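# nightly structure sweep
# worker-07 picked up a monomer target from the shared queue
# config: single-sequence mode, recycle default, output format = structure tokens
# input follows
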Amino acid sequence: MRQPVPPPHRTFARTMRADSTKAENVLWQALRNKQLEGLKFKRQVPLEGYIIDFVCFDAKLIVEVDGSQHAESESDAARDRHFHAAGFRVMRFWNDDVLTALDGVCMVIQREAQGRLGEGK
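# output follows
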């Protein structure tokens, strides 16, 4: 799903990778290098005008790690609808959940990704 990325988006994604939240860094350590059941995740990916926290393109799975500023966010809901329409499944986890229940978060992500791969999506 290669697309041309405007240079400002690429620069912003690089900045976000360098300035990730603690929860994003913790989750990245669990997802990187195909450590989660061989699933290939990328982080802070510019895609269709948005920056995605984590994405597994094979499973068409997007994982977002959110702080309280995202509670009931209409812009997040619009973004989720955009990616659902493109065939992605968007999963959102609170920072605190990642920091206090990482194994459970990873199990949910892995189960969803494997299910989507099994469906051929």
